[in-house]
Amino acid sequence: MTDTLAALQAELAAMKERQAALEAEVRQARDFQAVQNLQAAYGYYVDKGLWDNAADLFAEDGTLELAGRGVYIGRERVRAYLHHLPAYGEGMLYNHMQLQPVIHVDSAAGTAKGRWRSFMMVGSVGNEARWGEATYENAYRRVDGEWKIAQLHGYMNIYVDFYEGWNKGGVKLLRSIDGLQPDAPPTMEYECFPAPLIAPFHYDKV
């Protein structure tokens, strides 16, 4: 009887351990999916100039750094930056596709990091038409049970005129936004194509 009880207790302990491992695995998968959806939502909002919706995806102290223009610190500064971009409307194209994610989630800590490729089609009727491609290296944080963007950093790899193509070179990066100074200088000085650029990786292996 003692041996039977001991065996049952060992089996129960193993089942509890397995349950805990499965719950952790499910939590990890759900967090992974939440981070994917968060970043994809950002791209969809940017597509249509929904700047307030995009800004609301950031943590209160979240940061934004794009194309070497400096760092904007805090959700409201991110909102101000986005509102300085061209408004969406008749004849305006600002497609901002979020692709090729590599995401690492620490569910216990409530943090995550992700690397993305953004493909852009930018322009307006009668004005300009451009191709763009950037690497995002972002950080995310769970806030009150909801995932938010803690750091969004877009390294512009390619920005070229549609009619010229990349065989003719690239468009120089715009280093500032009129009427809106960054809160901190760029964390990395660089130029995009045709200059070579490898955005820093947040991981050594997947």
Automatic annotation (TrEMBL):
<dbReference type="InterPro" id="IPR037401">
    <property type="entry name" value="SnoaL-like"/>
</dbReference>
<feature type="coiled-coil region">
    <location>
        <begin position="5"/>
        <end position="32"/>
    </location>
</feature>
<protein>
    <submittedName>
        <fullName>Nuclear transport factor 2 family protein</fullName>
    </submittedName>
</protein>
<keyword id="KW-0175">Coiled coil</keyword>
<feature type="domain" description="SnoaL-like">
    <location>
        <begin position="28"/>
        <end position="152"/>
    </location>
</feature>
<dbReference type="Pfam" id="PF13577">
    <property type="entry name" value="SnoaL_4"/>
</dbReference>
<dbReference type="InterPro" id="IPR032710">
    <property type="entry name" value="NTF2-like_dom_sf"/>
</dbReference>
